Amino acid sequence: MTKHKHLTLSDRNDIQLGLERGETFKAIGQTTLKDPTTVSKEVKHNRQVRSATSDGLPCPLLYKDPFIYNECPKRRLNCGYKKIFYLAKQAQIQYEQILLEAREGTSLNSQTFWEMDKVISDGVKRGQHIYHILKTHHLDVSSSTVYRHIRKGYLSIAPIDLARAVKFKPRRKSTLPAIPKEAKKGRYYDDFQQYLTHSQLTSWLEMDTVMGRIGGKVLLTFNVSFCNFIFARLLDIKTALEVAKHFYVIKNTLYEADRDFFEVFPVILTDNGGEFAKVDDIEMDIRGELKLFFCDPNHSDQKGRIEKNHTLIRDILPKGTSFDHLTQDDINLVCSHVNSVKRAALNGKSAYELFTFTYDEELANLLGVSLIPAEDVCQSPKLLQHKF
Questions:
Q1: Which residue of 65, 185, 205, 338 is 20 to 30 Å from 309, comparing CA positions?
Q2: Interatomic CA distance for residues 109 and 115, integer angstroms
Q3: What tens digit of pLDDT does each residue of 101-115 get?
Q4: Cβ distance 38 to 29 under 8 Å?
C-alpha cells in the first residue's frame, strides 16, 4: 500500500463508490491501496449533513461503521432522521482548502513576524536549537517552517548559523510520474507469487536501475533469479520511453539470432519507479505472453537478488560516479566481471557458468556478457580507471 501519500480525487471517488456498495473500510483500503484506518479517518473528517435533515434525530446507522448514510436504502426518502453522507467532490474541496491555508506564507510586513525573527535569531546566536526556542517562547510556527524561512533568507540568520543544518543535503525529488493504478491492477507482488505457483516457474527476471550522476546516464539492469546472472543497458536518461526503447532493442537482438526472449524470460519483477510506467510496451511480445509485476512499495527485499548484484557493480562503479563518459561496451565489461565472480551461494560457481550451463554461451554473448578467466577478474574501479 502507498504510505505518506495524500488522497486524490480518484481515491475519494473509489471510497464513495465502496461506501455506496456497502464495503468495509478494509475492502475499500485494498481497492485504493490505503490503510483501512486512513479510509476511516477520511470518512469521519469529511462527513456532510444534508441541510434538509439537520434538525432531525441522528440516525442509528451513524453510530457504527461506516458512520455515514451512503449505503442506506432509505437515503433518498424522508425517514425523519438526520442524514450524513460522504461525498468525494466535497471532501476534495475541503482538502484543497485546508492545504491552501496550511501553505499560506507568513506576511513579511507583519509585526509578529519580525518579533518572531528576533526571538529565533537571538536564541540561535546563543546556541539554542530551533525546537527549544519555539517551545520556550510558545511560538505558533512549526520547526520545518522556520528552517524553510532560514533557507529562503527571510530571517536575520542563515543556515551557516545553525549547528547542523548546513550539512544537510537537499531532499531528492523524483521527476518521473507515478505508475497509474490501472496499469498495476493484476500486477502486484501477491499476483506475482500466485502466478509463479500456478505456472510452476522457478526463475524470473528482476529489473531495476542504477543511478550515476543525477540527471545523467543510468543503468537499466536485469538479473536472472536462479543464478544471479546480470546484464545491463546504458540509458541516456531515466525515462519510461528510454526503458521501452531499450527493451525493444534487446528483444529484437534475440529475435534476429532466432532466440526467443519470452521463452527465456517469461516473467519480470520490478519496483514502482516511474521509468517502468510503459507496461504495454514492456509486455509486448510477438511470441508469447510476457508478464510484468511490481514489488510492494518500499520493499526492495522482494527483489533482493538484483539489489545484491548492484553492490558488486558498485565495487567497480562507486556511488556518485558519473556514467556519462561510459559506453555500452564498458557496461558489458563490468557485467562480465561481475558474472565471473565465484560465489559461495552458488557452491563456488560463477553466475556465468550456471547461466551458460542452463542455456548456452551464445545467449550470454547476445546479452553482452562474456567469460572472464577467474585469475583476471577485477572487482574495483581499476577496471575502468582509463575512463576516469
A1: 185
A2: 11
A3: 766 655 555 788 888
A4: yes
